[in-house]
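[job 0412] stage=fold_complex status=start
inputs:
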Amino acid sequence: MDTLNQLGVKWPELIGQTINFAIVLFVLWKLAYKPIFNMLDARREKIAAGVANADKIKVQLAQTEADRQKVLAEAGELANKIIADARAAAARVAEVETQKAIAAAEQIIAKAREASAQERAATLVELKREVGRLVVQTTLTVTGKVLSPEDQRRLAEETQRTIA
Amino acid sequence: MKITKQVLRETRQLFRSCFVNDLLDQNRVRQVVALLVEKKPRGYAAILTRLHRLVKLELARRSVRVENAVETAPDQVAAIQAGLERVYGAGLTYSYWINPALVGGLRIQVGSDLYDGSVKTRLEKLEQSF
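[job 0412] stage=fold_complex status=done
writing structure:
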């Protein structure tokens, strides 16, 4: 006690200040700290809920991404299959069309060859006929001039011999 | 004018009666025609028409047309006639023609038979062979 007195601490003042401090503390607790703590708790809960939501969203996002990747993979496989089928069908069609084109080309070539051969044969026949006509015409012209009376007689006798 | 079977038969008989030694005798033909005109039997017009046709065919069958590019020499004429009479018998009627278009050789037509040794025909055959 003496020590406290020596240090300047007086009990009535100390008790009064303590009571004052208690009153201030009580008022502050009631009017300031408590609402602040409530607000902080609410905020903390809100943040926790937000974090939980974020985690949930993150999980859902991951799930969605996984689903998307899966769908994309399936779509890719399906697309590849369709492309492969289309390529195979296109190859078959191309092969068939190529064969048809080859057959048509061969037919055209054969017809062209046949037409050419016919035309050549016709030209040859025409040429031979023309040559024959010229030969005969020339021979007729020349023979009439060169046949002597003896030749005429010999020719007449040849005809006579056929009568028998 | 209707030509019945009877007309044909009678015409054939009359036509045969006009032959002497397998040769058509013109006097017989004249006699037959005169007789028909005088007697006028049934269907005589048809018989005359038919007889005319038969006589015409017989004359054509016995006629000879000789074509030569130049004038035919007398010895050749004799040779031709001898050759033809060997094949067709006597009684042929000859006609001789000059046809320069033949160029050379003879063309002899006896009825429907043809002997063509002309240069023109030979050249035509040659032309056809081309």
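[job 0412] summary: The first strand of chain B starts at residue 19 and ends at 20.
[job 0412] exit 0
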